[in-house]
Design a protein that fits this description.
Blueprint: H1 9-15, H2 49-56, H3 58-63, H4 67-72, H5 85-104, E1 112-113, H6 115-128, H7 136-141, E2 144-146, E3 159-161, H8 169-185, H9 188-199, H10 223-246, H11 254-265, E4 280-285, E5 289-293, H12 304-313, E6 324-325, E7 339-340, H13 342-345, H14 352-364, H15 368-377, H16 393-428, H17 439-453, H18 473-487
Parallel strand pairs: 1-4
Antiparallel strand pairs: 2-3, 4-5, 6-7
Helix pairs in contact: 2-5, 5-6, 8-10, 9-10, 10-16, 11-16, 12-14, 15-16, 16-18
Amino acid sequence: MSSCENITSAHKEEKAGTLPLSLEEYAITSNGFLPEQIPLKRLPQLYYDPWEDLVETLPTAIADHTLRPQVDRLPILSTDYLATEEQWRRAYVVLGFLTHGYIWGGNTAAEILPPSITLPLLSVSHHLGIPPVATYASLNLWNFTSTSPGHDPSDLDALQAQHTFTGTTDESWFYMVSVAIESQGAPLIPLMLDALQALFPSPQPHPQPHSESPPVPNPPPSPITTATTALNTMTTTIHNLGTLLDRMDEHCDPQVFYHRIRPFLAGSKNMAAAGLPRGVFYDEGPDSGGRWRQLRGGSNGQSSLIQFLDVVLGVEHLHAGEGVQVVRSYSGGRGGGTAMNFHQEVRGYMPEPHRRFLEDVEARWPGGMRTAVGRVLMGVDGDGKGQGGRLGDEERALGEAFRTATRALAKFRNKHLQIVTRYIVIPSRQPNGSRGINLATASSRLEAASSAVGGNRMADGGAELTGTGGTALLPFLKQSRDETFRAGGFHVQ
C-alpha cells in the first residue's frame, strides 16, 4: 500500500483499536474514497511523455479532429516502468481519457480501439482490478487538483479537474461537484462503522464472580445512543451533500453538458443507437487479435460513498429493467455468474479495494441499520431473544433517527432525478442540429420518436432514454429513490 493511502496520523491515533475494520486495507483515507494526496499531474518517467503530451492537448485535438490520427501514431508503450499505485492510477486516468476521446471524438463513433491504447490500458486495468474504460474513478476520484491551503478536496470552489474532453469550466465543475461530495461525506465512513458495531455487538463472555468494581465516573454512551447520534449526523451530512448537488447550476450549463460533455462519458454497452451496435473492438495487434467488449461508461452510480450509505441503512435494490449478469473479469471473483442488479454489477467498475470494502461491510453487518434498528424496536437482544417491555425514549429516538436518515438519502436521490431532468431530459426534447451520431443525438432522436407516438418508447420498440452507464435512465433512478424510501418504512405510491 502506497503512503498516499494511509490515514493521517491524527485520524489513526483517534481510531486505532476502535474501528471494527481497518480502513487502510481498503484504500480508504481521511478523504474517504478519494486519495489522501492530490493525484499525480504527470507521470515522472519521460518514457510516458507521448501519452502525457497528447492528453494535455486533448480538448484541442478533439475539436480539430486530429486526435484519432495522433493516437494511431502513438508508440505502444509498456507499463513496466510504472512504479507506484499513484502512477498506475495516473496511467489509468490518461488512458481512459484518450480512449473515450478516440471513440467519441468524431462525427461517428470509432468501433475499433487501436493497440497503442488497448495494450497498455488492458495492463493498467488488470493491475487495478477495474475495467478498461473511463469510470467514476478515472473521471472524478483520481482526476482533481485544489488551490486551497492544504489542497482540501471538500472546498468545491478551489477544486479543478486535471483533465476534460471539452476544456470547458462546465465539464470541470461537473466532475468536481462529485469530488466535493465524496470528501464531505468521508467522515461518515468511520462514524457509521462504529454505529453498526454498537448495534451488532460481538458475543460477550459470561461474567465471572468478582469483587464489586467502583462505579465509572463518566460511563460511555449506550450502543443505542451511539447509533442514534451517528444517524442524526448522517442526516445532517446528507443534507449538506444535497446542497453541493444543488450547486451544479452555478458553472455547468445543461446545454453544454448534454451536447458537448455527456457524449464522451458513454460506454459501449447498450449504445447501438449511438453507433456501437457490437460495442468496441479492443485491438491487441496482429499477434494477439483482440475482442469486442461492451462496457458501461462513467456514472455516479459507481460512487462507493453512495453505495456505502445504502449498505449502512440496509437499502435493498431489486432488479430493474434488463437482466444484469456479473462481469466476471472485474467482480473480484465474488458472486460467480449469478444475476445481479445494477447496483451490484457496477461495483465491478469501482477500485478493487473499495468494492471489497462494501462486500465486507455487507457480510459483517447483514441488513445494516434496517436490521439492527428493527431488532431494537421489536425488543430483541443480540442473541435473538425477546427482552419484552415497552419501548423507552432511547429506542423511539433511534427509530426516528433511522427513518429520518433514510428519508434524507431518498431526498438526495430525488435531487439527482431533478438534475437529470434539467440536464438530460429537457435538452433531449429540444431541437438538435448536430449531424454527428453520439449519445446526445441518439437521445434526441429517441425523444422525438417518443413524442411522435405519444409514449415514452421509440416507435420501433427501442429502449427508453439511456444513461451513460447503459441503463434505462429515469426508471432506474426512480426505482432507486423509491427503494430508499421503503427502507425507512415509508409508503411509496
